[in-house]
Amino acid sequence: MIVVDNLSRSFGGVFAAREVSMSVAAGEVRGVIGPNGAGKSTLFNLISGHLRPQSGTVSLGGTRIDTLPPHRRAELGIAIVFQGARVFPGMSVLENVAVGAHARTDAGALSAILRLPRHRRGESEIFADAEAALERVGLADWVSRPVTALPLGQQRRLQVARALTAKPTALLLDEPASGLRAPERQDLSRLIRELRADGITILLVEHDVAMVTSLADRITVLDLGRVIADGTPDEIRRDPAVIAAYLGKASA
Fold first, then answer.
1. What is the pLDDT of residue 126?
2. Residues 8, 173, 58, 28: what is their CA dihedral angle, to the nearest 10 degrees?
3. Of 1, 6, 47, 74, which is most buried by a Cβ count within 10 Å?
4. pLDDT in tens, 103-152
């Protein structure tokens, strides 16, 4: 589903990603972990399109996407949940989620301005999908409430619901558990398992190593911009390079 091949990106001569390669199978939960400064966020932004690589390629379902802007990647099936809770104040929870379907709309600006039937049909479908997505993530009771009333944990779930309205084939999650309490992390983990069961390919970039090892089919470990290990959770736990990266060579 997602193939990263020899991807590199530097800032001021320092590589945040150096010749990173990774292949994510369809329907897989792939974890990406690493100590602070390992290059996780850079890799996430290279795949999502918010950074351009200096070399290497990114493909989605066999189609190269590394030269495409984020909105074109969204049209091809990539949906993103960012680390920070991004909501639109002054809008309801339902309206915030409906925004995620923008990549699917093709009625055009004129149709929207004139409220033509094609636009009205599309709008009805989008809001129906938004309601279904909110029910999917356990927020059906919040539909009409202002988005600013949502606690942080629910805001993360709202972001997932927004991503689901785009009907993605691949979901990119950037530190989704950041700032969440233990019960909220457990709820989020259950949701990720359910989405995987629905066949969605998930790339999970996360600091919480225990959470990643409990969810991921395979894990890619970065350190100083390089891939130092790639394997199942059990293989990663035992890998000497991973132990050294997290604990220091003296502790490995």
1. 87
2. 120
3. 47
4. 555 544 333 433 445 555 667 888 899 999 999 999 999 999 999 999 88
Cβ–Cβ < 8 Å for 17, 42: yes
Specify the domain boundaries for CATH 3.40.50.300 within the chain: 1-77+168-252
Residues counted in the chain: 252
Instruction: Collapse the DSSP code of 28 into the 3-class scheme (helix H, G, I; strand E, B; otherwise coil) and give the result.
Output: coil
Contact indicator for 20, 6 with CB cutoff of 8 Å: yes
Confidence band, pLDDT 50/70/90 cuts, at residue 84: confident
Region of 225 on the Ramachandran plot (φ > 0 left; ψ -120 to 50 alpha; else beta): left
User: Which residues have CB under 8 Å from 55's CB, separation 6+?
Assistant: 6, 7, 8
Residue written as token pair 């691949």: 170
For the purposes of burial, counting CB atoms within 10 Å of the CB of 208, is it exposed (0-12), middle (13-18) or buried (19 or more)?
A: buried
Angle formed by the axes of helices 152-164 and 182-197, nearest 10°: 10
Q: 48 to each of 43, 120, 183, 241, 248, how far by Cα in Å?
A: 9, 31, 29, 28, 31
CATH tag, 1-77+168-252: 3.40.50.300
Name residues whose C-beta falls within 8 Å of residue 121's C-beta, 6 or more positions apart in sequence.
none
Which tens digits make up the pLDDT trace of 183-223?
989 999 999 999 999 999 999 999 999 999 999 999 999 99
Distance CA 197, CA 194 (A): 5
